[in-house]
Amino acid sequence: MKVELVAIHSVTLFGLGRWDVEDILLYFLLGFEISAAVMAAVDDLQFQEFDDAENLLAANRDATTISIGDPSSNPKKQRRVPGATPREEDDDLLGNDDSDKTELLAGPKKSAPFWTFEYYQTYFDVETHQVLDRIKGSIIPWPGKNFVRLYIRSNPDLYGPFWICATLVFAIAISGNISSFLVHLGLPQYHYVPEFRKVTIAATAIYSYAWLVPLALWGFLMWRNSKVMNLVSYSFLEIVCVYGYSLFIYIPAAVLWIIPSETVRWISIVVAMCLSGSVLVMTFWPAVRDDHHRIAIATVSAIAALHILLAVGCKEYFFDSREAEPPTEPAASMTAKQILPTMKTK
Amino acid sequence: MAEVDEGNRPMFAGLSDVSISEDIPVEGEITVPVGSPSQDDECSTLDEPVKDTVLRDLKAVGKKFVHVLYPKKSSSLLRDWDLWGPLLLCVTLALMLQGGSEKGKDDLGPQFAEVFVIIWFGSVVITLNSKLLGGTISFFQSLCVLGYCILPLTVAMVVCRLVLLGGSSKVSFIVRLIVVTVSFSWSTFASTAFLADSQPPNRRALVVYPVFLFYFVIGWMILTFSPSP
């Protein structure tokens, strides 16, 4: 392009007769040289840029692998020393190749920036049998086994937590409706009205529990980690994953709460609490074990207390505790039903 | 430099001098090459009556309804998606779920907006879920399938309202329960017939479960609907 322009210039000048052939040649060559130099410089720039990008990428890759590998691989090795044989066996049973695959893929998988779809796909990278294994692991406590290390293995998914929460919301809302229907069944002039409000309230309560408590716990563990070195540390998503799966046990419990009997409800709460609460406690105990004794106990009991508070709160709020007591007049039952939630919050 | 600047002037002046001499006639024919006139008639929707346009779209929607009622793994529901059918079904369902309680009292049943949001937000979440799990289906195709597969449940809603006209007794409840259960399983079966193929086999259950939950919740809303006495 540039050469052509220079040529046109020189030809016009030549036509005017002011320049001689040598000058034109010189001009021509000069123009050629300049354009060649410019092109070379551009090429250089491009190469430079490419090198830079690759260096940066390489650095990033290293950085991510270090940050991911650190919490998961070091404690694993250290924890594996005392009880080596049973844990190894479990790893084999659960598929060692799987863990190898996840560890190999961990580096490039996490390198996708957060605004891309691929970044979020890494949190849904689970298969049916993995999800079932995780659910099983969350409701069956094995003494001395760590849920995160055994099932999640640096591949926390959001599929389980999200859909378990959604199922729990509708399980609570639907069985709450059915139980209030059963309580009032057979009463004269009782007109059943579905309470859709329960879905909204249950969704707010459960989703905030499943996100805010892990957030608070993660912040707390980070803070403690900066003061006292703990061997085990969890990432935020691992904590969310543990909490999400730990809510699974409440789904069958919520279905059992349909039975209008306080005894059955309390038994189901205690059983659910013992199963998933102990999994939670066993998971987070190693993370606080090296801390001061008092703080460790307090953290673990706070986790357990919040877990039981959710269950008791849901049961009290969404399920009519009255066991089919006949109201004095039909109008009173209607108003009582509306006042009831406000009374209970007091 | 001055010489170069001076040299520029004649060049541009020469350019401005370029003109078409008057003895060359500037005339011609502007024609668009037409392949075949019959094809042109088929494709053109500009000069057809509005009735034809509307009828063609309605026919496409109706054809998809038939596909939902006879889910035989046809891909035509996936190939050309539209959201008219889902909108129609969703609005019909939400309108029929209205009026669940007495006038003057708080309506505790699902409101129009709640039904609308549950259906659209639910299908968007299910679609995102299937995309995140690595499905090959496109976003709007999945929305289209999920929306069209509400058809059996909308039919169940119509049947329920008709049954409820005869009063709400134990018999009517059992009839409604059967109708809703059948239409719920029909919806789930139809949508999985369309959607499951786009998934790797070891993740099929993970995609089908949210669809099941979605139609279950809609079925529950239909079953528990009770009109004001």
From TrEMBL, chain A:
GO terms for molecular function: small GTPase binding. GO terms for cellular component: Golgi membrane. One of its GO terms (biological process) is vesicle-mediated transport. Residues 65-105 are annotated as: Disordered. The chain crosses the membrane at residues 162-187, 199-223, 235-260, 266-288, 295-313. It is found in: Golgi apparatus membrane; Golgi apparatus, cis-Golgi network membrane. Coiled coil: none annotated. Residues 65-75 have a biased composition (Polar residues). Keywords: Membrane, Transmembrane, Transmembrane helix. It is a multi-pass membrane protein. Residues 139-311 form the Yip1 domain. InterPro entries: Yip1_dom, Yip5/YIPF1/YIPF2. It holds the Pfam family Yip1. Residues 88-97 have a biased composition (Acidic residues). Belongs to the YIP1 family. This is Protein YIPF. It comes from Aldrovandia affinis. The lineage of its organism: Eukaryota, Metazoa, Chordata, Craniata, Vertebrata.
UniProtKB/TrEMBL annotation, chain B:
Residues 70-221 form the Yip1 domain. It is found in: Golgi apparatus membrane; Membrane. GO terms for cellular component: Golgi membrane; trans-Golgi network. Belongs to the YIP1 family. This is Protein YIPF. GO terms for biological process: endoplasmic reticulum to Golgi vesicle-mediated transport. It comes from the Eukaryota. It is a multi-pass membrane protein. Its main location: Golgi. The keyword Phosphoprotein does not apply. Keywords: Membrane, Transmembrane, Transmembrane helix. InterPro entries: Yip1/4-like, Yip1_dom. The chain crosses the membrane at residues 81-100, 112-133, 145-167, 173-195, 207-226. The keyword Zinc does not apply.
